[in-house]
């Protein structure tokens, strides 16, 4: 594939002129230097899969050496996948459960910022593609959720995402050029996703790019959110989101 189509980190990994070690360092560590790579490999190898109290202790001691910033009392579960840890910040007393993916891949200074007393549930994926993800204080993201960002995703304080939610900012491509594979055509974004404080997304909700969900709103399970939702609204709908009313009325 011609290099003229390369732009994102993922596409650069297809460059045939680069070695496997260079590609691995780019996708995992995100910073050049043999010392950084060896430190990452050693800490992950020694700590990632260790069960029980010993594993919690090892990760508590050594994982903060990988991240840009880690507060006090953070709990790291087993087999967490960490990408570009120098772009990840975690606040005090937050829990990162087993099998979580924290992928802050990108070239800028932004990445993943998780506030205090948050919970990132088992097997949840937080993934940047040159974008940013902000999870504010006391946010609870349940198991098997996916949050992807090519621009910005912001989840307000006390947000609650039930299991299997899918939140994606970006991920759209133009497809006018039939001679070029769609994945190599320019990405189109609508400005990211902003979810206000104290919002509840029911199980398996999908939130698409460009959406703002107001403070205190409740979205029913299985809904597909393609437009803005006002504060304290109660809404649901798989084909077309319908405002059913407001809390307290």
Radius of gyration: 19 Å
Helical residues, percent: 10-25%
The CATH level-2 architecture is identified as: 3 Solenoid
Overall morphology:
globular
| Terminal CA distance | 58 Å
Poorly predicted regions: 1-7
- What is the average of the pLDDT values? 88
CATH class descriptor: Mainly Beta
- Strand elements, count: 25
Beta fraction? 25-35%
CATH topology: UDP N-Acetylglucosamine Acyltransferase, domain 1
Task: Characterize the main sheet.
Answer: 9 strands, mixed
| Number of helices in the DSSP assignment | 4
Assembly state (oligomeric): single chain
User: CATH homologous superfamily?
Assistant: Hexapeptide repeat proteins
Explain what you see:
This protein is 15% helix and 28% strand. It contains four helices and 25 strands. The strands form four sheets. A nine-stranded mixed β-sheet has the order 2-5-8-11-14-19-22-24-25. It has a seven-stranded parallel β-sheet with strand order 1-4-7-10-13-18-21, with no helix packed on it. A hairpin with a 5-residue loop joins strand 24 and strand 25. The protein is globular, with a radius of gyration of 19 Å. The N terminus is likely disordered.
């Amino acid at each position: 594939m011609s290099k003229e189509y390369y732009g994102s980190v993922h596409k650069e990994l297809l460059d045939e002129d680069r070695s496997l070690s260079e590609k691995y360092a780019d996708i995992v560590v995100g910073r050049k230097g043999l010392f950084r790579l060896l430190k990452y490999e050693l800490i992950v190898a020694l700590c990632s899969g260790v069960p029980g109290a010993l594993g919690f202790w090892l990760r508590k001691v050594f994982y903060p050496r990988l991240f840009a910033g880690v507060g006090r009392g953070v709990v790291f579960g087993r087999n967490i996948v960490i990408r570009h840890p120098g772009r990840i910040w975690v606040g005090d007393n937050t829990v990162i459960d087993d099998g979580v993916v924290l992928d802050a891949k990108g070239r800028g200074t932004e990445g993943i910022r998780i506030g205090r007393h948050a919970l990132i549930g088992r097997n949840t994926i937080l993934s940047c593609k040159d974008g940013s993800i902000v999870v504010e204080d006391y946010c609870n993201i349940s198991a098997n959720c996916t949050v992807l960002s090519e621009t910005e995703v912001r989840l307000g304080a006390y947000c609650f995402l039930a299991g299997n939610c899918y939140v994606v900012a970006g991920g759209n491509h133009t497809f006018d050029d039939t001679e070029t594979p769609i994945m190599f055509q320019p990405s189109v974004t609508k400005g990211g996703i902003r979810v206000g404080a104290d919002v509840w997304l029911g199980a398996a909700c999908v939130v698409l790019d460009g959406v703002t969900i107001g403070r205190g709103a409740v979205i029913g399970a299985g809904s597909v959110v393609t437009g803005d939702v006002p504060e304290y609204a109660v809404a649901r709908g798989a084909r077309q989101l319908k405002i059913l009313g407001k809390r307290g009325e």
